[in-house]
Design a protein that fits this description.
alpha+beta, Aspartate Aminotransferase, domain 1, 3 domains, 6-stranded antiparallel β-barrel, 4-stranded antiparallel sheet, 6 helices
Length: 370
């Protein structure tokens, strides 16, 4: 237990040092914002994977048999779908994200996921599959050998498995069939959208543009959008140059005070701007150990008694004594870590402490529980 507490305390100390080193560090505009109209396009398609080693769909996937019969019919081979029962074919859904600037012929990775009762997609090959958006427009085709990064071997009641083999990736398996460029420059202005809306950051982005390209170049429309007017010396043929230069602008991003807790994994992440109002913290725990040992009662020799076995229960209660630690006004993340480490808390204890501080009104931050 002491080793675990010391390790956790060391982790908090390292986190505080890293946060102090990077506090106030400037980031590039391209890492926190994107051009309006340059979002990715999600595409999906239904396809077949062939070449499986007996790990394909079985009797509970009739759509696989129907799809295989339809496929063979295109090649002049007509069969009854109920007669097609191969074990090396699986029905899958193919998904991908298309970059906003792809051109016909651009290649990208596609994700393949089984939708039937196949046991593995390892070694399979995806047949050509049209990929369309939610409106039904076809953007690309996907095909190629599937990489799952694992295996699933079964022999009778014995099975060996590594990783998850019902989802795989086809590297460069997608080929774009149309252009996805949706940016419009006719108005002579651009708009950048922040990935995380924030009024302070939006204003700082506008100030960075004005400092670099001249006053009145940019203005923040709201917490997300920054409208930028192309400078006079950047004509039609220099738009790409302007955007490339704009993406390298650096600024200090304002981050809201947040504490993120994952109760399933015991993970606690405390933001840089987290502060505490005056509070007193104490944290103790009670451990109860119950032990049961048999006690044998043996009668005397030549007596009419009988041997009796009775349990003897012992209950031990240990309560840890933890002092109360006072937290003053405006305590920083480093001081929070030092105070909690002085209590010898574990990640599970820290989750309970942060929740109690929030309920008490001392934690001046947004508490997010995943």
């Amino acid at each position: 237990m002491n080793l675990r507490i010391k390790s956790f305390a060391s982790f908090l100390l390292i986190a505080v040092v890293l946060m102090s080193n990077f506090a106030g560090a400037e980031v590039r505009l391209k890492d926190i914002a994107r051009l309006e109209g340059s979002g990715t396009t999600s595409v999906v398609g239904y396809g077949l994977v062939i070449g499986l080693n007996g790990t394909g769909d079985r009797y509970r996937s009739p759509y696989t048999e129907q799809s295989l019969a339809n496929l063979l019919d295109r090649f002049g081979i007509t069969i009854n779908p109920s007669d097609a029962r191969p074990r090396n074919v699986a029905a899958v859904m193919v998904t991908a994200e298309i970059h906003p600037y792809v051109r016909p012929g651009t290649r990208f990775d596609v994700l393949v996921s089984s939708i039937g009762d196949a046991t593995s997609l390892a070694g399979g090959t995806l047949l050509p599959t049209p990929l369309s958006d939610l409106e039904g427009a076809v953007w690309a085709n996907g095909q190629g050998a599937i990489s799952v990064g694992g295996f699933n071997i079964e022999a009778g009641r014995v099975a060996m498995r590594k990783n998850y083999t019902l989802v795989g990736r086809v590297p460069n398996g997608g080929v774009a069939t149309r252009s996805a460029d949706s940016l419009a420059f006719e108005t002579g202005a651009l708009r950048f959208n922040l990935n995380q809306p924030d009024f302070t950051t939006a204003q700082r982005v506008a100030e960075a543009f004005n400092a670099e390209f001249g006053p009145e170049t940019a203005r923040a429309l709201d917490a997300t959008r920054i409208e930028v007017t192309l400078p006079a010396d950047y004509g039609e043929d220099r738009r790409v140059e302007f955007i490339a230069r704009a993406e390298t602008l650096t600024l200090d991003v304002d981050v809201p005070a947040r504490v993120v807790i994952n109760e399933r994994t015991g993970t606690v992440v405390v933001g840089e701007n987290v502060r505490l109002r005056p509070a007193a913290i104490t944290h103790g725990s009670i451990s109860i150990a119950v032990k049961s040992a048999p006690v044998i009662s043996q009668p005397g020799p030549f007596s009419s008694g009988r041997t009796v076995v009775a349990p003897l229960d012992q209950i031990t209660v240990n309560e840890s004594q933890t002092p109360m630690v006072a937290v003053p006004e405006g305590t920083t993340i480093g001081e929070v870590a030092a105070a909690l480490n002085s209590l010898g808390v574990t990640p599970v204890d820290m989750i309970a402490i942060f929740q109690a501080l929030k309920e008490a009104g001392s934690l001046q931050a947004e508490l997010i529980i995943l």
